[in-house]
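Appendix B. Chain record.
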Amino acid sequence: MSSRIRFMLLLTFAISILSISASAMAQDKVVVKVWMNDDDLGQCVKDVVTTGFNAFSKDSEVEVDLQPNVDDTLKTALAGGAGPDIIPIVSPIASQQYAKAGLLLPLDEYVTKLEWDKLFIPWALEMGKFDGKLYTLPDSLETLVIWYNKTVFEENGWKIPKTMDELVTLSKTIHDAGVIPFSNGFGECLECLGSLPGAFINHYAGPEKMYQALTGQIPWTDPVFVEAVTIFNDMVQKGYWDGSRDRLFTDSFDTAHQTLGSGEAAMYLDGSWAEGFVSGSFGSAAGNKNDYDWFPIPTKNGDEMFMTSLGAALSINVNSKHPQEAAEYLNWAFSPAAQTERFNKCDFAFAPIRIDADALSQAKPRTARIYAAYAKNAAEGRYGYANWTFFPDDMNTAFSTDIQKVLLGTLTPEAYMQEMQDLYTKAVADGTVPPIPAR
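Structure tokens predicted for this chain:
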């Protein structure tokens, strides 16, 4: 046998052995199942975060299943003792029902083992606790601002308002000029309408009053909360929100963005997450020459503040056969490197973790300014409490749905806030008030 043939046979044998070994190694990897919403964001997170984890981990790999409506599918699966290893939840307060039903795995052992107490900012892990145990890791730190058509403002000489009175006056001025003050519409998500009265009670009452109500020191029937709801209701009745109450209830999010971009509307109250949606309705690609920016939601006294919210949370299924590997994935997903890549590539807000200042260097400049302003105000105690993060679950549901009754004239602002107080009192008795970090 020639040396060349002998070499080729040995090379073929070696390649075969390596292929078998690689296949065996791949088969030995533990599969961690993750469910996400079947939308652009879910696909992006799948491509960026989970692909990165699979390349990094030697012992496990993530298998992502995109679901058309992950919340509904998840509830059905968990009720039957099934579901993925990693459980996505819309917010920390929504996790209480799962924890109470015994569907989530306590995560306390991993806090020390994986040093999550050093990774997350001090108050964040408290939000994932129920009955003294940690069940969820909070994700997507967000706030609300007012996005506005900068070109329309400049052409009309309109000034950025700082107080709530100035905002109401400006809205009248804009309305009288034949422009819709706010473009918001909630036809695709009526329960999301609760973000508007939530913004008003926060910025009218202020951080201290909100904290006092959330900790039971003052009632939700306090006049300052009733006044805030009354102001919002009056603005809706005057057509300052999407031109009419009916349009506020029925218009889509896309319509709201397009109305703002075209200049038919001047402002849009939405989250720090919204720039990716808003920007698409401005400039030559959208058929206009308009520009946009944002400003803080005005307050009663003019002092700048920002609401704090958490838009998601992740947990581990109590029935997971691979909890250690699931925790390893969570540790990767919440790492500063993975979070930075997710933020820059997917426009998915950072979790409340410790990050370096340069983590925002690749972010959209306007969004980066929002987070910089939020961080500055939060460090100085000027932060509020989003209803979908800090209200008891039943109270938040009623707050977000029954505001429609107020706007339809079948429930007064006083009765609305009395209902909130009754539900808060019940939550205290039931032990379902979310942890409220001390100020």
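Further analysis of this model is presented in Appendix C.
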